[in-house]
Write a structure and sequence with these properties.
heterodimer; A: six-stranded mixed beta sheet; 11 strands; 57% strand; B: mainly beta; seven-stranded mixed beta sheet; four-stranded antiparallel beta sheet; 49% strand
Chain lengths: 111, 119
């Protein structure tokens, strides 16, 4: 069966450091992979989309890598800030064009 | 940017009653909307795909007679939880893709969810 796995343990880092989150998937052959941010009690907000032929994508302090051989994406936040504290979700498109999500990784950035 | 409005944000109802949740795309049209459910510390689980002008497509294990979906226009989909029970208490979130966007892999725009509590 299809799986999207993210480290469910919370990631605690100090302000200014780089946070790295991992997303692994099985039984998908994705052309795209997406990352979302979700704050408590809110809907997810789109952050970045990376295509299978792109090794890396950047947006301001965010960087995403996509390795289709390893079936893995890494999501980096550089110079992290307390405002970056949230849950980050990895998502892949299913056959019906909806998105399937990983469980998300909770990030806490402390001053 | 594309905005999806979901209402109500929070609802408490008694067991056996029905609750309707509205999802509107405010500045774009969406022939397809998606309804998700999220339990605490769990992933978003797709419940159904709402298709404008036709029947919704439900995921395996989701009762279509219990979760009624109506997508009467290009900007409005509704989810009605019928004969609600305490186990239906959850966070329900709708989403839509701008049909003028890049295609089936373009990002989804999400509403802010509805917290349903059934007592």
């Amino acid at each position: 069966s299809q799986k999207i796995e993210q480290n469910s343990e919370a990631l605690n880092i100090q302000e200014g450091k780089t946070a790295t989150l991992t997303c692994n998937y099985t039984n998908y052959s994705p052309a795209y992979l997406q990352w979302y941010r979700q704050d408590p009690g809110r809907g997810p907000v789109f952050l970045l989309l990376i295509r299978e032929n792109e090794k890396e994508k950047r947006k301001e302090r965010l960087k995403v890598t996509f390795d289709t051989t390893l079936k893995q994406s890494l999501f980096h936040i550089t110079a992290s800030q307390p405002a970056d504290s949230a849950t980050y979700l990895c998502a892949l498109t299913n056959s019906g064009y909806a998105l399937n999500f990983g469980k998300g990784t909770s990030l806490l950035v402390t001053p | 940017g594309a905005v999806v409005s979901q209402h109500p944000s929070r609802v408490i109802c008694k067991s056996g009653t029905s609750v309707k949740i509205e999802c509107r795309s405010l500045d774009f049209q969406a022939t397809t909307m998606f309804w998700y459910r999220q339990f605490p510390k769990q992933s978003l689980m797709l419940m159904a795909t709402s298709n404008e002008g036709s029947k919704a497509t439900y995921e395996q294990g989701v009762e279509k007679d219990k979760f009624l979906i109506n997508h009467a226009s290009l900007t409005l989909s509704t989810l009605t939880v019928t004969s609600a029970h305490p186990e239906d208490s959850s966070f329900y979130i709708c989403s839509a893709r701008d049909q003028a966007g890049a295609g089936s892999n373009s990002p989804l725009h999400f509403g802010n969810g509805t917290r349903l509590t059934v007592t």
